[in-house]
């Protein structure tokens, strides 16, 4: 199996095997648009129904933690809070196998003491096992503002660095659009399942930005290498060389995604569901969804979008038309000779646009003009 996977990867790299990802980009664009629209729709429904499920750090309130309990069921906590503040609808979660966390809106000092006593009686523990704290919404608001500022600064720096590095603003724009896609879909998943959005979630969202942009830059670097001097030849179009770059980095993208997702999946499914660690669950879900969506967007969205933007340039558009016209002439000249026709079309078994070892390296960088 390993040898077969290696051979498959080698065939992708040499061009013997190829998936027409760029040629079918409209279908992948449609998938991305549908995912974004559905995610925005779910978020909109949540907002209309009272907003996203924000953690206490963002909305503020009182929090109680009951330790050393033998039964982590929610009903005793609900009854205890209802006995003191009937109008409150607390959020009760189990943390591990012997701890229960209860969150309510802001309560008075007297109500806090009464709820703590009721919780101790309900779970059969001493009052010393019940701790209470108040979290103001100001801290959560400050975290939100800093997260937004960090996101904007990150996107601006990424756009600037990619534009300078690749000397092509279209790659930067395609990468930013792919990042927007990843963020919206991840938040949409959170809105769909109704999990709390906590500071750990925000950290996870900011983390997936770096992962997604890294994966995209690797593919773009190969695109730049393959398309260097593309206008000086007539064997292949810009889109075909970019598609070859995607295929050549496909195995690397798969391997990187699997290696990254496995430990995150372990944190999510073992640490969160079995151990009941809420913080691990919050950050792991954002990482898991974001990495999976980012792996998809770096292959099926970012590069095809960059190609679509480049094909709006007249030199690229004219070159593509020229290559296709010459290819059609060669196919027509080949006549009934099937092998010759395939070779003329550039799809023969012996035709390979790039061979292993033919890396352009620094030569792929556009030449700088020397000052006169």
Descriptive tags:
Multidrug efflux transporter AcrB transmembrane fold; 372 residues; alpha+beta; single chain; 67% helix; four-stranded antiparallel sheet; 13 helices; 2 domains; protein-transporting ATPase activity; Alpha-Beta Plaits
Q: Any overview of this molecule?
A:
With 372 residues, this protein is α+β, with helices and mostly antiparallel strands. The chain has 2 domains: 16-48 and 138-311, Up-down Bundle (Multidrug efflux transporter AcrB transmembrane fold); 60-134, 2-Layer Sandwich (Alpha-Beta Plaits). The chain has 13 helices and 4 strands. The chain has a 4-stranded antiparallel β-sheet with strand order 2-3-1-4. The radius of gyration is 28 Å and the shape is elongated. The protein starts with a helix and ends in a 27-residue tail after the last helix. Mean pLDDT is 81; it is low at 347-366.
Quick structural overview:
The chain is of the alpha+beta class and 372 residues long. The chain has helices at residues 2-14, 25-48, 56-59, 75-84, 109-123, 137-166, 169-193, 199-227, 238-248, 250-274, 278-310, 314-334, 338-345; strands at 61-67, 91-95, 99-104, 130-135. A hairpin with a 3-residue loop joins strand 2 and strand 3.
